[in-house]
Amino acid sequence: MKITRRNIFWLKVAMHLVALTPIIYLVLLVLSESAGGDPVQYIIHYTGIGALNTLVMMLLISPIARRFKLGPIVQTRRLVGLYVFAYASLHLMAFISLDLLFEWSLLWQETIKRPYILIGMFSYIILFALAITSIPALRHKMGRQWQTLHRLVYLATALIPIHFYWSVKSEIIEPSIYIAIAVILLLIRAPLKRLLSKNILM
Ligand code: HEM
């Protein structure tokens, strides 16, 4: 299939709709008081899962482009990446405003007391750095350093499912599935052949 500029435009429009619809749905749920018995936890979970799902979608774009020879679709990666950051920002804001009620000292205490919050913070800093440096002028200015910095997305991909796993008390099936997905996505990028040739797996 030939991908034209027009196709990419409509693909981006579809991606905006897919990313924005769950946010509008969440607002409607909260306004109609249908966000469960504990709306604060509901919003934190909803936006956290939203950020993680969007990250998985972003990481699938390159393998799909390669497998189905749809090179131009990689142009949508930046847009999806910015939605990962937007969802993660909503998640952090919900935690600070609704759960901690802007008690900044509590944020610091939680970060040093709970390893999953520390990992979340660290992952968020990575996403923040990637979002800021995705501005085309900055990307241009950074040259090769840009690619080195943007490889940190793989570190965030490994850390965020761990954040999820450690945040739950007993229900470990869902976070375990995300850990498996992250491992697969990371292995796709470091093909087994390359690992074998460097004797890493031997
Ligand atoms: C900025 C620092 C972060 C803080 C302070 C934070 C805080 C939290 C909190 C309080 C929870 C709920 C734990 C509970 O069950 O009580 C949570 C869960 C979660 N967070 Fe984060 N988080 C951060 C960053 C991130 C990032 C960057 C992502 C993804 C991109 C993320 C994804 C998730 C997911 C998927 C869950 C589990 C949701 C569920 O239980 O269904 N978090 N986080």
Describe this structure in words.
By secondary structure, the chain is mostly helical. It has one domain. Helix content is 79%, strand content 0%. The chain has ten helices and no strands. It has helices spanning 5-31, 39-67, 77-99, 104-113, 115-132, 136-142, 144-150, 152-167, 173-189, 192-197. Helix 1 (5-31) packs antiparallel against helix 2, helix 3 crosses helix 5 and helix 8 packs antiparallel against helix 9 (173-189). The N and C termini lie far apart (40 Å). The model has no long low-confidence stretch (mean pLDDT 93). Protoporphyrin IX containing FE is lined by residues 44-45, 48-49, 51-52, 55, 88, 91-92, 95, 117, 120-121, 123-124, 127, 160, 163-164, 167-168. Protoporphyrin IX containing FE binds next to helix 2, helix 3, helix 5 and helix 8.
Question: What's the short version?
Answer:
Helix content is 79%, strand content 0%.
| Helix amount | over 70%
Oligomer: single chain
Q: What is the structural class?
A: mainly alpha
Q: Work out the count of structural domains.
A: 1
Q: What Rg is obtained from the alpha carbons, in whole angstroms?
A: 18 Å
List the uncertain runs. Answer: none
Specify the number of helices. 10
Q: Please give the largest β-sheet.
A: none
Mean pLDDT: 93
Shape: globular
- Small molecules bound: protoporphyrin IX containing FE
Distance between the termini: 40 Å
**Count of strand segments:** 0
Beta-strand proportion: under 5%
Helix and strand string, N-terminal first?
A: HHHHHHHHHH
